[in-house]
Each structure stands twice: as C-alpha cells, then as structure tokens.
Amino acid sequence: MPEMPEVETVRRGLIEQVLNKRITHVEIRYQNLITGDVDEFIETVTGAVISNIGRRAKFLLIELDNGYTIISHLRMEGKYRVSADQNAIDKHSHAIFTLDDGQMLIYNDVRKFGRMQLWPTDKLSENKSLKKLGPEPLAADFTFENIKPRIMRHRKDIKTVLLDQSVMGGLGNIYVDEVLWQAKIHPETKADHLTDEEIKDIIKCSNSEIDMAIKSGGSTIRTYLDANGHKGNMQDRLKVYGKEGEPCPRCGTEIVKIKVGGRGTHFCPKCQVAK
Ligand SMILES: [Zn+2]
Hints:
By secondary structure, the protein is α+β, with helices and mostly antiparallel strands. It folds into two domains: 4-131, MutM-like, N-terminal (N-terminal domain of MutM-like DNA repair proteins); 144-267, Helicase, Ruva Protein, domain 3 (Orthogonal Bundle). The protein is built from seven helices and eleven strands. The strands form three sheets. The protein has a five-stranded mixed β-sheet, with helices on one face. The protein has a four-stranded antiparallel β-sheet with strand order 1-7-8-6, with helices on one face. A hairpin with a 3-residue loop joins strand 4 and strand 5. Helix 1 runs parallel beside helix 7, helix 4 crosses helix 7 (196-215) and helix 6 packs across helix 7. The chain is elongated. The relative contact order is 0.15. Residues 248, 250-251, 253, 268, 270-271 line the site of zinc ion.
C-alpha cells in the first residue's frame, strides 16, 4: 500500500507535470472509482484547470480552479501516470484525464480499491474522510500536547493505536514498525502505559522517519512507482520492516515477526523490551 511518503512523492511528481494544465476531456472506465455521481464528476472536472495538488495524510487533493477538489485515495495499488502515449492506457486504467498540452493523466489501479470524490474546496474540512484524521508528522500541529491525549485515551497495543488514522494521520504498517524500532518501544506496549519521554520519542522518530522517507522517494514495497515512473529507494533504508530473521542494525539480535492487531509486525526483541 502506498504510505504517506509515497503519496507525497506522487504529489510532487504531479506538481511538476500537470500543474496549471486544463483538463479537456475525462473518461471514467470504472464507475465505482468515483464516490458520488459519475456524470456530475465528469461535467464538473471537464474544462477546469489543475490549480494545485495538495495532500492530507494519504489523500491526494487535486485542486481545480472552479472551486472543487478531487479527493483521491490510492488505497492498495492506485497509481498516476502522465503520458502522451495511447499505449500507456491498459485494462487497469480506470480514469483518463486528457490535458490541454496533449498529455494524459492516467489513473491505474490493479486492485480497484482506490477512490476519487469531488468536494468543494472551501469545505474540505467537513469531508467525512478528512475530518477524522489526526495530526500528521512534520505538520505544525504534530506536537506533544496534541498527540499525547490522542495516544493515552487508548488501552490497546501502541502498534494498533499508531495505525489508527484518527490518532496520527498518515502512518501505515511499514513506518509504524520503523518508528517503534527507532524509539525502542515494544509494539505490544499498552498505549496508556507510555511515559511522556516515550511519546516524545514517537513524535521525534515519526518526524525523522517520514522526512527521510519523503527525501528518498518512498518505499518500493509491492509495485509502487511515483508519477514519473521512478522507483523510490526507501526500501533499502528500512531497518526492521520485512527483515524477519536478519540482524537488528543496532544490536545484531534477530528481528522477529509477530501479529499485533492482525497486522504483521517486525521488531527487535532486545532493543524493544516488553514492559
Ligand atoms: Zn536490536
């Protein structure tokens, strides 16, 4: 699944390629891609200029000059590609936005889980999906004062709590494992048992982890490509995720994999001691 850094990489790629381009034609080949009325979506988007590409957690916000924004969630396998070549369109291309420079913005999705929704730009904060998101790493409101109460009201395992997008926006399975390893916290530690120092470490490590991931263009777990077709190199930098049986980069102990809240979880049993 593309995580937040991957979505940020896609955002930056799209800014370079489609900003200020007018959408002259829209084709939706998979009707369920659109949340809401498909004809209304096509009618509203056609003729509009892409005036900005924003992001909130894992949601891409394709802002149009007519007061509407396309809220795009890539879910498992969604990808954007920009091309003038008709051969770039295949059976997994579910939305094709033709641009006034002759290029096409093509949305591909093998698993068909991704969704797009049109929403008034000045009412984005009222959108159900966006409204429930907690503060996200690197944002101004991602502070100890804001995050501590969101974590402490849960009695579940910290791994599960950090995956809850209403606690912190944007961290998925890969980066939660990495953050907990960096912070030396066992993934099954109960959230309400964390000390202030540990919560500060989680915040600090989330910021550094996401910052590094964005700088290296996201991970390449599965078939992820950014909007330019470049592969990210974050996978080489992961310390514990997918490293079961390999030595911990800090102490050499074998990384183990367990299930926490139904999710595959990687950690070092020596560095991350259960309380
Ligand atoms: Zn270790």
